[in-house]
Amino acid sequence: MEYNMLQEEEDDEDFLQHYRMQRIEEMQRQLCCGKRFEHVYELNSGEEFLEALDKEDKSTLIMIHIYEPEIPGCDAMSGSLMCLAHEYPQVKFCSVRSMSISTSALFRESALPALLVYKGGDLIGNFVRLTDQLGEDFFAVDLEALLQEYGLLPEKPPMVPKTLRNGAIIQSNVSDEDSDLDID
């Protein structure tokens, strides 16, 4: 009787171990093989704005920056989104001029830069006049921290080492010859 119970426990443990390995492999495939965007898409009309939302998988997180070049903070937002697009390749980052989607003059003057966050066609984050929270000159880490605070960014994919040199992992292909630190 006790032998049968011990055998069942071993079988359960084997099953759970096998299940864990399958789930890990499945999650790695989704992470590595899922759709990757990796840059900011410029939208040129209200129609393109709607297509950006409607034509993506319902699980895709979409962030749309509404801007005008002359509005303070819009350039900082554009630069920040370019950086985040590389760090979060599974998120679709877009930008659109407010004039292209026929916003009112009042919206342009009082709400830009704006960032809208969508998932499954639903608006889940709506940030207007982000300069009130971040200032006019901010960086990707500032925007990233704000979005993480609201739970609007997925986990970052793990960093994949780019090269191995003498057994050491190097994250970049930049040569050591250009270093500012000289060790003799």
Structural summary, described in words:
Mean pLDDT is 82; it is low at 172-179. This protein has helices at 2-33, 46-54, 74-87, 105-111, 131-134, 140-149, and strands at 40-43, 61-67, 92-97, 114-119, 122-127, 163-165, 168-170. It has six helices and seven strands; from the N terminus they run αβαβαβαββααββ. A five-stranded mixed β-sheet has the order 1-3-2-4-5. A two-stranded antiparallel sheet has the order 6-7.
CATH superfamily of the domain at 34-149: Glutaredoxin
Total helical elements? 6
CATH class of the domain at 34-149: Alpha Beta
Content of β-strand: 15-25%
Average predicted local confidence, pLDDT: 82
Question: How many individual β-strands?
Answer: 7
The CATH architecture of the domain at 34-149 can be given as 3-Layer(aba) Sandwich
Q: From the alpha carbons, calculate the radius of gyration and give it in angstroms.
A: 23 Å
User: How would you characterize the largest beta sheet?
Assistant: 5 strands, mixed
InterPro entries: Phosducin, Phosducin-like_reg, Phosducin_thioredoxin-like_dom, Thioredoxin-like_sf
Domain Phosducin: 2-176
Family: Belongs to the phosducin family.
Protein name: Phosducin domain-containing protein
